């Protein structure tokens, strides 16, 4: 009995401390400390690897340059090498060896995704590259594998498709939207084959299903025209195209359905996060921020080398709202418009991958605070807390490829690698140093994915799963299964290389 009393008093004291921290507005400082802690932990994990091969070094540099803010990285703790042959300790869970991938630029085939033509990973040499090609060829014909089904927020009306949308398979398209809108891991590539406007299709369907069209008196044709304009502004690049935007939008819609988030956000906040998803990569050139900075691109000059693409996406998205007949917010009161704009800006700027550690630290701090409080209920009373959840929600959706079925994951992986390779080709032509994982002659795809999951994706999704427990458990299971698949590919290659007879030196 005395122990229970003591525990109760301790809990009350902890809750009092948390309240005081919030009242004196030190949450940002706590989050900053968590960010620093996470960054040091990542540096420590990867800096254990010494005397690594060139591929290992590329992976290390890729993680640092992409997911750590260059303005915040401690130069004395820079990551150096990953191993050529890793043990259980240095790959976190299992052993692996990288497989070099060499892609030919001649005699190549093309894969078309929503009108985008690009060289695919199929042209790489070796058995696994040919296997990857088979997956890409079947990408647009196979149906999606098992998905997590989330209870819909409301029933879809008969007018599930936007007015004026054209498709040669209208009945199949309608069925896809009706049955797949609330599924995690729906085959977005199938949707892109059913319609050339997958983003417009989902944008309209989700707004309708969530009652946002009626709630904010949005003229339907304004919504359709605006969505079409945004979709047309997505470039025909391998990865950051309209299909990716549609995927992030639909994934975020599903994440909003988590039971832990029921009634947490206002309708305006829901509309803001969906709007942010739709525009978050609009007019993306298929190049990184660092490339634009290194080449003195006009966008880098315009935005002072700071979240260059993210600022551009926002500018394009809001500029298109001013087109005649495209303002979806024309009946929204001015105060709410300004509030939505503020939220969208904060969310899209947070899609800059260099903000990853700060986002993860914010999320982890919130999860731990929730655990200490012991309520298990999210109480988001201030703008900062609510924005942290929404920013991390889009970030999770943006990094959700490894959590989808293996078929979809491999397709996305092939596309992002091709986009990296194209940038590497341009860097080579200009005589620039090639960015990490952008050299099509040396990039190690399988090992990159294992490290990517271990150090970036899994920590993020594990923390999100803690926040919305138990809704994301199946997602974590799929992530682990996909990691094991890529690890097995490395292991198979290692065994194959070790079994090869020595070369005849005559």
What attributes does this structure have?
506 residues, mainly alpha, Catalytic domain of cyclic nucleotide phosphodiesterase 4b2b, 2 domains, two-stranded antiparallel sheet, 20 helices, 2% strand, globular, EC 3.1.4.-, PDEase_catalytic_dom_sf, HD/PDEase_dom, cAMP, metal-binding
CATH class of the largest domain: Mainly Alpha
Note the overall shape.
globular
How are the strands ordered across the major sheet? 1-2
| Total count of domains | 2
CATH topology of the largest domain: Catalytic domain of cyclic nucleotide phosphodiesterase 4b2b
Uncertain parts: 74-153
* Beta-strand segment tally: 4
Give the full name of the CATH homologous superfamily of the largest domain.
3'5'-cyclic nucleotide phosphodiesterase, catalytic domain
Task: Output the structural class.
Answer: mainly alpha
In what range is the share of β-strand residues?
under 5%
Output the radius of gyration: 23 Å
- Helix fraction, binned, reads 55-70%
| Number of helical segments with 4 or more residues | 20
Distance between the termini: 84 Å
Query: Helix and strand string, N-terminal first?
Result: HHHEEHEHEHHHHHHHHHHHHHHH
* Major sheet characteristics: 2 strands, antiparallel
Task: Specify the CATH architecture of the largest domain.
Answer: Orthogonal Bundle
Region (Disordered): 75-104
GO molecular function: 3',5'-cyclic-nucleotide phosphodiesterase activity; metal ion binding
Family: Belongs to the cyclic nucleotide phosphodiesterase family.
Enzyme class: hydrolase
């Amino acid at each position: 009995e005395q122990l229970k009393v003591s525990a109760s008093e301790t809990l009350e004291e902890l809750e009092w401390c948390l309240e005081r921290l919030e009242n004196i507005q030190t949450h940002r400082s706590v989050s900053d400390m968590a960010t620093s802690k996470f960054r040091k932990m990542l540096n420590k994990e990867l800096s254990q690897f010494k005397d690594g091969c060139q591929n290992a070094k590329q992976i290390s540099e890729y993680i640092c340059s992409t997911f750590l803010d260059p303005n915040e990285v401690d130069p004395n703790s820079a990551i150096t090498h990953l191993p050529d042959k890793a043990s259980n300790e240095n790959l976190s869970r299992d052993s692996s060896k990288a497989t070099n991938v060499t892609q030919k630029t001649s005699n190549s085939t093309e894969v078309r995704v929503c009108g985008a033509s690009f060289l695919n990973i199929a042209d790489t040499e070796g058995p696994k590259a040919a296997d990857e090609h088979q997956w890409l060829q079947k990408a647009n014909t196979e149906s999606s594998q098992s998905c997590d089904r989330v209870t819909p927020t409301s029933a879809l009306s008969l007018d599930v498709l936007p007015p004026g949308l054209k498709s040669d398979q209208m009945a199949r398209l309608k069925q896809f939207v009706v049955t797949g809108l609330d599924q995690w891991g729906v085959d977005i590539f199938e949707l892109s084959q059913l319609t050339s406007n997958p983003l417009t299709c989902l944008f309209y369907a989700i707004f309708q299903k969530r009652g946002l069209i009626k709630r904010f008196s949005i003229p339907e044709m304004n919504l359709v025209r605006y969505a079409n304009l945004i979709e047309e502004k997505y470039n025909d690049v391998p990865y950051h195209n309209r299909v990716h935007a549609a995927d992030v939008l639909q994934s975020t819609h599903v994440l909003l359905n988590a039971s832990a988030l029921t009634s947490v956000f206002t309708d305006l906040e829901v509309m803001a996060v969906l709007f942010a998803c739709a525009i978050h990569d609009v007019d993306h050139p298929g190049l990184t921020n660092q490339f634009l900075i290194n080449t003195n691109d006009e966008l880098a000059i315009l935005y002072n080398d700071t979240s260059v693409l993210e600022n551009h996406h926002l500018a394009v998205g809001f500029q298109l709202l001013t087109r005649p007949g495209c303002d979806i917010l024309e009946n929204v009161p001015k105060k709410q418009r300004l509030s939505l704009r503020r939220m969208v800006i904060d969310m899209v700027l947070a899609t800059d991958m260099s903000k990853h550690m700060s986002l993860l630290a914010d999320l982890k701090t919130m999860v731990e605070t929730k655990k200490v409080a012991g309520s298990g209920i999210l109480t988001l009373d201030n703008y900062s807390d609510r924005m942290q959840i929404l920013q991390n929600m889009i970030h999770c959706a943006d990094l959700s490829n490894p959590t989808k079925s293996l078929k979809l994951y491999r397709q996305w992986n092939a596309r992002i690698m091709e986009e990296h390779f194209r940038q590497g080709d341009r860097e080579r032509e200009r005589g620039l140093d090639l960015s990490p994982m952008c050299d099509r002659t040396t990039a190690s795809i399988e090992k990159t994915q294992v490290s990517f999951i271990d150090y970036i994706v899994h920590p993020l999704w594990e923390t999100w799963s803690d926040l919305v427990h138990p809704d994301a458990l199946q997602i974590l299971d799929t992530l682990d299964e996909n990691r094991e698949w890529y690890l097995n590919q490395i292991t198979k290659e290692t065994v194959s290389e070790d079994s090869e007879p020595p070369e005849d030196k005559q």
